[in-house]
Amino acid sequence: MRYLPLAFDLRGRPCVIVGGGAIATRKARLLRKAEARLIVVAPEVGEELKGLVRESGGQLFQANYRAQFLDSAELVIAATSDSSVNAEVSRDAQARRLPVNAVDAPSLCTFTFPSIVERGSIAIGISSGGAAPVLARGIRAQMEALLSPRLGELAELAARFRDTVKQALPEPARKGFWEWVFSGPVAAEVEAGRAKEGERLLHAALAEPDTRSLNRGEVYLVGGGPGDPDLLTFRALRLMQRADVVLYDRLVSDQVLELVRRDAERIYVGKKKQFHSVPQDDINQRLVDLALEGKKVLRLKGGDPFIFGRGGEEIDKLADAGIPFQVVPGITAASGCASYAGIPLTHRDHAQSVRFITGHLKEGELHLPWRELASPAQTLVFYMGLTGLETICHQLAAHGLPASTPAALVEKGTTREQRVVVGDLDSLPRLAVEKAVEAPALTIVGGVVGLHKKLSWFEP
Ligand code: SAH
Predict the structure, then answer these.
(1) 218-328: which CATH number, 3.40.50.150, 3.40.50.2300, 3.40.1010.10, 3.40.50.300?
(2) pLDDT by residue (tens digit) across 80-99?
(3) Ligand 1 and 332: CB distance under 6 A
């Protein structure tokens, strides 16, 4: 390690920035986050930078740089566009034993700025020691994804209770208590956006020496998206990393499943058409039972849990049993398939509305409001519509849509095996058989399908 990351307390301390342009402003913003007092030296200074100096209670010198400007400095940044001025600033600062950073000139620096991941008072610096700044930025992006945006709130909560906990608990109990706070239900509540409940639990735990008895199970109902793991949300990924056990469907892709914490127990509860391998009631009950055992249960579903996903039924049971849960939306098949097939679901020239419809047959029949569906200028998206495809196309035409209305099937959308079959209401059922289209597949009907030819971009 060539560079040692240190955490400086700059609050109220005079920091000199030489330069008045965009880079100087960027550094000034950063120093202001640490509440530094800014002293800016430059013949010309932008408005934002002027404002930052003012609010910091600092000083602005609209002048050419001279060494005297460093007299009161505790930290120096050379951020002019003139490398000879930057070199002069660096020399002067080093002569005065002041830490100095010159923008884009490692040899003139006695310290560098790491890439920073910030969550309130939590700050993580990532430094490559100048070897590979782009790599450091990439690492930063990964950490941004993994750390809850509410980590700062958690740190604030801890700060507020610090003294109380200190008085109430001697070591080593205190350390154990804080570990429980940051890894248990308090953290989970805060991260789920329920800070009040988190605080209540923390209170309760202080009165209850055996915190283990407060460890409750909970359920995360998470949308795993249509297949491409890149389409997961940050929150989905975080909860997948935290789960003790995962119950997943057939529609959850292998690559998505791979992102679940390695040692989590995996339970397949998928249904196959005609084989209801695990009845819905059993799944609902199992979620309740596992949570009552104190487990963190991940219910991972394809697409979005609230769109043809029975998510509502599953959390209904949890609500009855008083088990905490949270719901994480996923990219639904319609959004995912449409994007990856280059078929905009709405378009000013073709469709002013879009409808998501289940094409699932009940006892071999489809009871749908065909007349409404056959109205013009809307896009229809049928989920589970492969078996009933012939009926769907026939009924839409019979109720007034022209047989030449464009229609497409997207098979295994967003995955490496994606196929898009395009035809019209007349030809699509035949094409589906010819090309042996398999589930999962989505049917899209409407003028927007005609745009696929030009707008398709994804090549699996
Ligand atoms: N909750 C899911 C939908 C479950 S219903 C969601 O929001 O996407 C199951 C149907 O979704 C399938 O029959 C199919 O029509 C559609 N589907 C799901 N994933 C798909 C994919 N990758 N490609 C095409 N269709 C998909």
Answers:
(1) 3.40.1010.10
(2) 999 999 999 999 999 999 99
(3) yes
